[in-house]
UniProtKB/TrEMBL annotation:
<comment type="similarity">
    <text>Belongs to the metallo-dependent hydrolases superfamily. TatD-type hydrolase family.</text>
</comment>
<protein>
    <submittedName>
        <fullName>Putative metal-dependent hydrolase YjjV</fullName>
        <ecNumber>3.1.-.-</ecNumber>
    </submittedName>
</protein>
<dbReference type="GO" id="GO:0046872">
    <property type="term" value="F:metal ion binding"/>
</dbReference>
<dbReference type="InterPro" id="IPR001130">
    <property type="entry name" value="TatD-like"/>
</dbReference>
<dbReference type="InterPro" id="IPR018228">
    <property type="entry name" value="DNase_TatD-rel_CS"/>
</dbReference>
<dbReference type="Pfam" id="PF01026">
    <property type="entry name" value="TatD_DNase"/>
</dbReference>
<keyword id="KW-0378">Hydrolase</keyword>
<feature type="binding site">
    <location>
        <position position="96"/>
    </location>
    <ligand>
        <name>a divalent metal cation 1</name>
    </ligand>
</feature>
<keyword id="KW-0479">Metal-binding</keyword>
<feature type="binding site">
    <location>
        <position position="8"/>
    </location>
    <ligand>
        <name>a divalent metal cation 1</name>
    </ligand>
</feature>
<feature type="binding site">
    <location>
        <position position="205"/>
    </location>
    <ligand>
        <name>a divalent metal cation 1</name>
    </ligand>
</feature>
<feature type="binding site">
    <location>
        <position position="155"/>
    </location>
    <ligand>
        <name>a divalent metal cation 2</name>
    </ligand>
</feature>
<dbReference type="GO" id="GO:0016788">
    <property type="term" value="F:hydrolase activity, acting on ester bonds"/>
</dbReference>
<feature type="binding site">
    <location>
        <position position="132"/>
    </location>
    <ligand>
        <name>a divalent metal cation 2</name>
    </ligand>
</feature>
<feature type="binding site">
    <location>
        <position position="6"/>
    </location>
    <ligand>
        <name>a divalent metal cation 1</name>
    </ligand>
</feature>
<dbReference type="InterPro" id="IPR032466">
    <property type="entry name" value="Metal_Hydrolase"/>
</dbReference>
Length: 282
C-alpha cells in the first residue's frame, strides 16, 4: 500500500482521463491520495477530486504562486471554508501554503502575508500544514516557531540536513518524489538516505515534478510505486518496510487521513465549501 501525500489531481491536465488515472493508480497499490488546493477558486475542485478517489483526501490553502491574484479577503473565505470542512472526514489540513523565493517576480511581502495568516488558521483549528518550500526553508521555519501549527509535511524538500532536522523537530515529515529519481539530484538523494525513515513521506506533485523516466512529461500518481522503489533501493530496505513506514508517517502528521482513507468514493458532504461568503460572487 502506498500514499501519495501531494497530488494535484484536480488540475486541468487530468480532465481528459482523470477516472482512468485513478483506476490505474489504485491498481498499482496507491490506497491514499491527498489533493491540496492552490487558491479559493479550486477549493471545491480539490474536494471533488478527492471524493472520487478511493482513499482520497484534500487540503485547503492559497499557494504562494497564486498570491499575485489573491485578495486579502481570501483569508476570511479560507477560514469560513475550513470551518465548514471540519465536518468532512476527507479534509486533512491547510495547504498548499508557504513561500517561494525562486520565482523572482513574486512579491515576498505579499507571500509572507498569506503564509502567516494561513498559519494562524492552522493554529486556530489545530490542523497540520502542507508547505511549499522553495529556497525558503529558513523563512518558513521562522514563522513556524512563532505560530506553532501541529506539524505537517514539507513538500518537495530540498534543503540542508540541518534545515531538515529543524522541520522534523517541529513535527513535520519531508516529502520525497520524482526529483529523487534523478542520478544528479545528489543532495536530495543524500537526505533520502540519511534522514530517519520516520521523517519521510512519498508524493508525486502530479502533474508536476515528473520522475526521470517521464522527464518533461505529465506526472501521475500511477508513478508513485516506482518512485517508492527508487527510495527503497537507495536506502537498502524492502518495499514492504518502506510502505509500512511511509504510510504510518503520513497518518501521524495528517491525523485525519486514516478517516479519509476509510471512505468510499462518493461518500461525504455535498454542499459547496468555497462559495460561502456573504458577498456576491465576482
Amino acid at each position: 500500500m502506498w500514499i501519495d501525500t501531494h497530488c494535484h489531481l484536480d488540475a486541468a491536465e487530468f480532465d481528459a482521463d482523470r477516472a482512468t488515472v485513478i483506476a490505474d493508480a489504485v491498481a498499482q497499490g496507491v490506497a491514499g491520495l491527498v489533493v491540496p488546493a492552490v487558491e479559493c477558486a479550486t477549493f471545491d475542485a480539490a474536494r471533488a477530486a478527492a471524493g472520487a478517489i478511493p482513499g482520497g483526501a484534500y487540503a485547503l490553502g492559497i499557494h504562494p504562486l497564486y498570491t499575485p491574484r489573491a485578495r486579502d479577503e481570501d483569508i476570511a473565505t479560507l477560514r469560513r471554508a475550513v470551518e465548514r470542512a471540519m465536518g468532512d472526514p476527507r479534509f486533512v489540513g491547510i495547504g498548499e501554503i508557504g513561500l517561494d523565493f525562486f520565482v523572482s517576480t513574486l512579491d515576498p511581502e505579499r507571500q509572507q502575508f498569506f503564509y502567516v495568516e494561513q498559519l494562524k488558521i492552522a493554529r486556530d483549528f489545530d490542523l497540520p500544514v502542507i508547505l511549499h518550500v522553495r529556497r525558503s526553508q529558513d523563512a518558513l521555519l521562522k514563522q513556524l516557531r512563532i505560530f506553532t501549527p501541529r506539524g505537517g509535511i514539507a513538500h518537495a524538500f530540498n534543503g540542508s540536513r540541518q534545515q531538515a532536522d529543524l522541520f522534523v523537530e517541529r513535527g513535520f515529515c519531508l516529502g520525497f518524489g520524482g526529483q529523487m529519481t534523478f542520478d544528479r539530484a545528489l543532495q536530495i538523494r543524500r537526505l533520502a538516505v540519511d534522514l530517519p525513515l520516520s521523517a519521510l513521506v512519498l508524493e508525486t506533485d502530479a502533474p508536476d515534478i515528473a520522475p526521470a523516466w517521464r522527464y518533461k512529461q505529465r506526472n501521475s500518481p500511477v508513478e508513485l510505486p516506482r518512485i517508492a522503489q527508487v527510495l527503497a533501493e537507495l536506502r537498502g530496505v524492502s518495499s514492504d518496510t518502506l510502505s509500512q513506514a511511509t504510510c504510518a508517517n503520513a497518518w501521524r502528521v495528517l491525523p485525519r487521513l486514516p478517516g479519509a482513507m476509510a471512505m468510499a468514493p462518493g461518500d461525504g458532504p455535498v454542499a459547496s465549501i468555497s462559495l460561502i461568503s456573504d458577498e456576491p460572487a465576482r
